[in-house]
Amino acid sequence: MGSGQWSVEKRSSLRSDSFSKDIDDVPETGCLSIIVLGASGDLAKKKTFPALFNLYRQGFLPAEEVHIFGYARTKISDEELRNRIRGFLVDNKAASSKYSDDVLKFLELIKYVSGSYDTEDGFRRLDKEISEHEISKNSHEGSSRRLFYLALPPSVYPSVCKMIRNCCMNKSDLGGWTRIVVEKPFGRDLESAEKLSTQIGELFDEPQIYRIDHYLGKELVQNLLVLRFANRFFLPLWNRDNIHNVQIVFREDFGTDGRGGYFDEYGIIRDIIQNHLLQVFCLVAMEKPVSLKPEHIRDEKVKVLQSVLPITDEEVVLGQYEGYRDDPTVPDNSNTPTFATMVLRIHNERWEGVPFILKAGKALNSRKAEIRVQFKDVPGDIFKCKKQGRNEFVIRLQPSEAMYMKLTVKQPGLDMSTVQSELDLSYRQRYQGVVIPEAYERLILDTYISFLFI
Ligand code: NDP
Ligand code: BG6
């Protein structure tokens, strides 16, 4: 994982620092330019711009300081990009006039520059636009911050990073910074990931690089450390003596949805399992870190990953949904899996013998991401509990965040019969009125405000 700043770990460090109050990060102010590269794409439309909008609405992107630039090869005007974003932001929403007003004001902050990812011409034009904005905000008298968000397939990261380095670095003599945010999947395999790391590392210092896995920003993923290590209940139960198996499941009820070109190159294992589900797996299975400092969390994650035995062919199932090859951007003979399930086995004292079943699929019958921890049967059972099903602890990451425990209880009434019931913590009911931030809101905020949680 290197010494890079993985968003959740950076957040964690902020939190731990917030306990110890010894943070040495300098508050960052000055003109902020956020540049979304790949602005014509799915991620930009569905997640990046909406997250920026929500940050704007909450006052984290003040109009006096911020400008947002979209960059991609597609030739569209500022207005066309704004219309796309507006379409997504207001789609299916019974928008209040305040909301619509905010959308319009937010869109005014956005400009679009079209250019290629491997020639300097477009990046020079981009740099000119950013500089003009900085000057208009008087930032030549102060520091300026440039955040480049690569909402792009990893194949173009090296050339894009090179262009940024050559043409678009922050030029203020008075401080500020240039940072880049890169998305998963980080390469295709170990070799390409290491190569990518070296290529980006030659262009930027490690503190300038943010590698994002947005699952780490989901509320219930952020909650995993607290849940596991701040609750006495779980401490003695979280092991091979009590747990029969753990399932980490991602399912989506739509297919490639216009992203066949990207998806077919990577497949479901690289798109979802290797990053999102493995991060969740690590948080469920790792030992308690020494503290919440990023390095301590990373070290525990690495240890548990190193204890995973090689996955055997017999414990992997792959599939492809019917109709996948009808996508015009997918080759007719594609073998790329859109569904995968596999068993991970951890060779350590805590987990020996407990299967961790990771499952991910696109175009299935529902959209859900959850962790299911199934407990062993009660020894010497006198109630025939088995009939009711096992004790189970479920953490639903989405939709409708919830945690519930399935337990066996006495069926109310005169009979001494048993039934399965739930202890249910559904966030919507328990935390009424609390708006749970989108994963990307937290993570993007972490890339430019480093003292929020003090
Ligand atoms: P897209 O397929 O929508 O690609 C984004 C943009 O990149 C496109 O609009 C296109 O812009 C450009 N592009 C696409 N393919 C290529 C290519 N082969 N060479 C050069 N440019 C290309 O992908 P997404 O937006 O869905 O994903 C981008 C990244 O974000 C991926 O790494 C993905 O893993 C990650 N991600 C995506 C999420 C999502 O929900 N979509 C969520 C989390 C992460 P143009 O042609 O205009 O230049
Ligand atoms: C992305 C994948 O990382 O995560 C997409 O590239 C997938 O294929 C998306 O649709 C799912 O994210 P979420 O937050 O909607 O579960």
From TrEMBL:
<keyword id="KW-0313">Glucose metabolism</keyword>
<comment type="pathway">
    <text>Carbohydrate degradation; pentose phosphate pathway; D-ribulose 5-phosphate from D-glucose 6-phosphate (oxidative stage): step 1/3.</text>
</comment>
<dbReference type="GO" id="GO:0050661">
    <property type="term" value="F:NADP binding"/>
</dbReference>
<keyword id="KW-0119">Carbohydrate metabolism</keyword>
<dbReference type="Pfam" id="PF00479">
    <property type="entry name" value="G6PD_N"/>
</dbReference>
<comment type="function">
    <text>Catalyzes the rate-limiting step of the oxidative pentose-phosphate pathway, which represents a route for the dissimilation of carbohydrates besides glycolysis. The main function of this enzyme is to provide reducing power (NADPH) and pentose phosphates for fatty acid and nucleic acid synthesis which are involved in membrane synthesis and cell division.</text>
</comment>
<dbReference type="InterPro" id="IPR036291">
    <property type="entry name" value="NAD(P)-bd_dom_sf"/>
</dbReference>
<dbReference type="GO" id="GO:0006006">
    <property type="term" value="P:glucose metabolic process"/>
</dbReference>
<keyword id="KW-0560">Oxidoreductase</keyword>
<feature type="domain" description="Glucose-6-phosphate dehydrogenase NAD-binding">
    <location>
        <begin position="35"/>
        <end position="223"/>
    </location>
</feature>
<dbReference type="GO" id="GO:0004345">
    <property type="term" value="F:glucose-6-phosphate dehydrogenase activity"/>
</dbReference>
<dbReference type="GO" id="GO:0009051">
    <property type="term" value="P:pentose-phosphate shunt, oxidative branch"/>
</dbReference>
<dbReference type="InterPro" id="IPR022674">
    <property type="entry name" value="G6P_DH_NAD-bd"/>
</dbReference>
<protein>
    <recommendedName>
        <fullName>Glucose-6-phosphate 1-dehydrogenase</fullName>
        <ecNumber>1.1.1.49</ecNumber>
    </recommendedName>
</protein>
<comment type="similarity">
    <text>Belongs to the glucose-6-phosphate dehydrogenase family.</text>
</comment>
<dbReference type="InterPro" id="IPR001282">
    <property type="entry name" value="G6P_DH"/>
</dbReference>
<keyword id="KW-0521">NADP</keyword>
<dbReference type="InterPro" id="IPR022675">
    <property type="entry name" value="G6P_DH_C"/>
</dbReference>
<dbReference type="Pfam" id="PF02781">
    <property type="entry name" value="G6PD_C"/>
</dbReference>
<feature type="domain" description="Glucose-6-phosphate dehydrogenase C-terminal">
    <location>
        <begin position="225"/>
        <end position="447"/>
    </location>
</feature>
<dbReference type="InterPro" id="IPR019796">
    <property type="entry name" value="G6P_DH_AS"/>
</dbReference>
